[in-house]
Amino acid sequence: MMRLYRFLSLAALALLTLPAQAQDCTCAASFELVVQNYESNYSLFNIKVTDENRELYKAYTDVFRSRASEVKEIENCLPVLTQWLQFFRDGHTGIKFTGTGSQAAKRERIETDRKKFEATYKKKGYRKNDLPGIWQYGAYEVAIMPDPTASTQSKDYVGVILSSANKLWKPGDIKFKLSHVYGNDYKAVVFMDDDSGKKLEGELRNPNELEFKNFNRWAKSWPNSAPATAAKEQADLYSDFHIRMLDGKVPYVRFLNFYEKEPAFVDSLFKAHHDQLVQADFIVVDVRDNDGGNDNVYFPALPYILSGPIQIPQAGMWMSEGNLETALEGVDPETLNEADRAEYDFLMAQKNSIFWYGNDDYARTYTPKTVFAPHQKVAVLMNGKTASSGETFVYRAMQSDKVVLYGQNTAGVVDGFTVFTKRIGCFELRYPSSLRAKDIADNPVDPYGFAPDVYISPDADALEFSIRHMRQLLENQAKPAP
C-alpha cells in the first residue's frame, strides 16, 4: 500500500480531533449542527437509520429539536443532545459540553495527596465511619472524604484521585460523588473520561468493599486491616498486566486494557512465562473490564490461544466529505508525485461511500506463525465492560477450538471504530468513522455483545468457578467413552 492507503489504515488506530467550528452557542443551533454532523459523518448512521425506521427516527429527532428550542441556558443543553444520541445505542459516540470562552467546563478538584489526606483523616476522626479512607479500583486510587461543599449535617462524600494510570485523570480530580440514602446505601455520580456523570446506586457492602451496582467494586487499601490488605492485593493484581501461577498449576493472564502497553511488552511477558504456559493443562485469560485500545497489543498472545487460522473481517471507512478532509488533512495534492496523486484522486472519488481495506473478500485469513500447546484449553473471562478492542480479542479467541468463554455478554461497542472528535460551538462530538465488517446491518454485535459459552452471574467469583469448571471438563473428557 502506498502512503495515502497507509494513512487510512493507521487512522484506524488513532483518536483524531477535527478543528473547531465557530458557531452560535444556543441550544437550538447546536442541536442542528450535532444532527447534521452525525447524519453526515457517523459511519453507522445509514445502518442504524434505514427505510424501515426512518419515520421513527425523524419523529424522534423532531421531539428533541422542540426540546432544544425551549432551552435558554446553553449549559442545560447537554442532556437534550445526549438523550437524542441514545437513539444509536453506540458506546463509541458521545457529546461533551466545553463551554464558551468565558464559561469553560471545568472538572471539579480538591487539592490533596496521600500524606495530607492521612493527616486530615486522623485529625478529624474519620475512622468513626467506614467509608472515608483510600480505595482502589483498576487504574485508580482515590481518597474518599466528606464533601467540603456540602452542609456539615449532610452525609455526602467525594472520591478524589490520588493516583491514576489513566492519563486523563490527575491527582485532585473528583472521580465520583456519594450522597447517603439510608444505612449503607448511597446515590452516586461517577464521572467518565469525557466528564459526563453516570448516576448509579452505591452500597458499602462491608468496611473494605464499595460497590457501584452493575458497574464496579472498589477495595479499601487504607486504613489497613487484614481483610483490607488482602482486598488491596487482589485489586493490585487485577489492575495490572501480568501473568502469575494460581495454585502453582494454572497460568493466569490479566489484560487490563489494550492501550497502556505496547505489543513488545506483551511479547516479552509471554516469552518469560513460555514454559509455564505450554506445560499447563489450561490457562486463564482475563479481559473483564477491558475497555479496548489497539488490537496489535494482544497479537503476541494469539499463538497461545488459537488452535489454527481464524477469519478477520475486512474493515471499512465511511468516506464522507468531513471524514475525508480529516483523514487527508495536510496533504497537498499539487505536491504529490504521479503515483500518489493517482491514489489521492482515487480516494477522493470514493466520497460518500465506504472504502473497504484489503480485497473484495468478506474477511482475510490470519494464520499464527506457530500454535503452542494445540490441545490445551483456554478459559477467557469477560463481562459487560469488555469493550471495543477487548471485544475483537474475544471474537478472535472464540474461533479457537481451545477456548471456552466465561462470564457475561460483552459490552457491544465494536461495530464502529476509529473515533473522530469534532468541536462545534460549545460542544465536542465523538463518533466512529469506520466499520468493523461488511455485514454489520445483518449481523450486528452492538449493542448486544458476544455471549459467553458458560454464563456466570456478576455476583459470583468468575475466576474460581472457571477454574473449577475447566478442571471438571478436562476430567470428564479424560474418561473413556461408555
Q: Which CATH class of the largest domain applies here?
A: Alpha Beta
Low-confidence stretches: 10-15
| Number of separate strands | 24
Mean pLDDT: 88
Major sheet: arrangement of strands:
5-6-7-8-9-10-11-12
Number of helix segments? Answer: 14
CATH-assigned homologous superfamily of the largest domain:
2-enoyl-CoA Hydratase, Chain A, domain 1
Give the domain tally.
3
Signal peptide: 1-22
Protein name: Tail specific protease domain-containing protein
Domain Tail specific protease: 250-416
Organism: Pontibacter actiniarum
Walkthrough of the structure:
Keywords: Signal. It comes from Pontibacter actiniarum. The protein is α+β, with helices and mostly antiparallel strands and 482 residues long. It folds into 3 domains: 133 residues, no CATH class; 112 residues, no CATH class; 163 residues, Alpha-Beta Complex (2-enoyl-CoA Hydratase, Chain A, domain 1). The strands form 5 sheets. An 8-stranded antiparallel β-barrel has the order 5-6-7-8-9-10-11-12. Strands 1, 2, 17, 18, 22 and 23 form a 6-stranded mixed sheet that branches. Strand 22 and strand 23 form a beta hairpin. The protein starts with a helix and ends with a helix.
Characteristics:
2-enoyl-CoA Hydratase, Chain A, domain 1, 27% strand, 482 residues, six-stranded mixed sheet, globular, 3 domains, eight-stranded antiparallel beta barrel, alpha+beta, single chain
